[in-house]
Amino acid sequence: LIPENGDIFCAVDKPYAISQKYEPAVAVCIQLANIFARFNTIAANYKIFAWEH
């Protein structure tokens, strides 16, 4: 599920549930800008770690 502006990604754990009333689904929504910034930080830390060893 991606809203119109496209900057938030949502993943639903039960996208094919027939009835959400009896099988509530959990949706996780992430702002893409935030997650990409986090990935960049992890990648930078990994490169520093790899360089030291």
TrEMBL record:
Superkingdom, natural source: Eukaryota
Lineage of source species: Eukaryota, Metazoa, Ecdysozoa, Nematoda, Enoplea
Species per Swiss-Prot/TrEMBL record: Trichinella zimbabwensis
Name of the featured protein: Uncharacterized protein
